[in-house]
Design a protein that fits this description.
The chain contains four helices and seven strands, in the order βαβαββααβββ. A hairpin with a 5-residue loop joins β3 and β4. The protein is globular and about 40 Å long.
Amino acid sequence: MKKLKLDISNLDHHRRAARDLLQFAGNEKVFTFEAPMGSGKTTFIKSLCLELGVKDRMSSPTYSIVNEYHTTTDIKLYHFDLYRLKSESELFDLGFEEYLFSGHYLFIEWPEVANGFLGSYVSNVISSENNIRYLCAEIFTR
């Protein structure tokens, strides 16, 4: 199983880490992000979006649940924050499967409620060791 560990403790490292993560992911377009509240999930996702050429203003989808972004090369990205969802039926009501099978990039914060929907994806866990923040990525296929 392929794994990747990136130092994201400094914002200056984010663009390089985003580039490395996208290269590691290859053709995978679904990315999940797990970490405690305030650990930098949204901030890192913004770096991924910038690396992919997003031209829109980016913000956390905490209240909207999903934000759609467009790139300079007409790629669409969907950024989900599933923190407030409590069941798979709420996700189904959002049309999550349509997003999932759209072929576009999906960046999913708090993905636990979506696990039953996911096939192949890149799991990202942000953690800290000795005052260094790391993003640990692993590709899962079902």
